[in-house]
Write a structure and sequence with these properties.
The protein is of the alpha+beta class and 224 residues long. It is built from nine helices and seven strands; from the N terminus they run E-H-H-H-H-E-E-H-E-E-H-H-H-H-E-E.
Length: 224
């Protein structure tokens, strides 16, 4: 796939968004959360940030919280001017494709992640649960439910009032979001059954199911 010259960007133009490393003891205040929200909003105004809306789950909702539902149609505008070379390179059937994508560091940043440097290694804490904690939680039911919204608004309100816990580790988040332990097993079984159904269905058509490994499970059809 040829890329138009005006889509090519220099790697030197790439700006890394991160809340960075901290030395212990680190006890962030609400002012630190405000700084995170400001940087988060700045990132969401980057051209490639449309990829956040395609990510799903809590990361998707954090994007909506920053920009609002009116920005959702922008994901249909195609790749941004930052897709090359900052996005994802996809190669298949002898063709090369580019798409906007998020790095692991950017996903961590979206969740408000800090790296606390201890002598025995960094401790990772975040204002919001990172995908590994969210996926294992009782709130991960495959869509943004009313319970998800209640939890989000409650956490946000407590942060603004200074009554909430600060950034937590993934282990702490998993304990906090346990709710119904069976939810994670149910979601795994649903995902496996969905993929099995679409794999069998593809044998009767000219379409092939292709797994896309984002933070959530989903299936895309590819023409063969």
């Amino acid at each position: 796939m040829s890329v138009a010259p005006h889509y090519l960007r220099l790697l030197s133009e790439l700006r890394t968004y991160t809340l960075g490393h901290r030395r212990p003891p680190f006890n962030p205040l609400y002012a630190d959360y405000i700084i995170y929200e400001q940087l988060h909003h700045d990132f969401m105004n980057r051209p490639r940030a449309g990829a956040v809306f395609l990510h799903g789950g809590l990361v998707w909702h954090l994007a909506l919280h920053s920009l609002g539902f009116n920005h959702l149609p922008s994901v249909f505008d195609g790749i941004s001017t930052e897709a090359v070379p900052f996005g994802e390179l996809l190669i298949g059937n002898g063709s090369t494709y580019y798409d906007d994508g998020l790095s692991e560091e950017e996903i961590d940043f979206m969740c408000g992640t800090y790296y606390i440097d201890h002598r025995d290694g960094p401790e990772i804490v975040s204002w919001w649960p990172r995908p590994n904690a969210w996926n294992a939680s009782g709130l991960n039911v495959g869509f943004w439910s009313a319970r998800c919204e209640d939890w989000f608004q409650g956490r946000l309100g407590n942060l603004r009032e200074g009554d909430a816990n600060g950034p937590m580790t993934s282990t702490q988040w998993k304990r906090s979001l346990k709710f119904q332990p069976a939810t994670n097993k149910i979601m795994h079984n649903v995902s496996a059954a969905s993929y099995d159904f679409m794999t069998r269905a593809s044998s009767k058509s000219s379409l092939t199911p292709c797994l896309i490994h984002t933070y959530d499970f989903c299936i895309a059809w590819t023409q063969t």
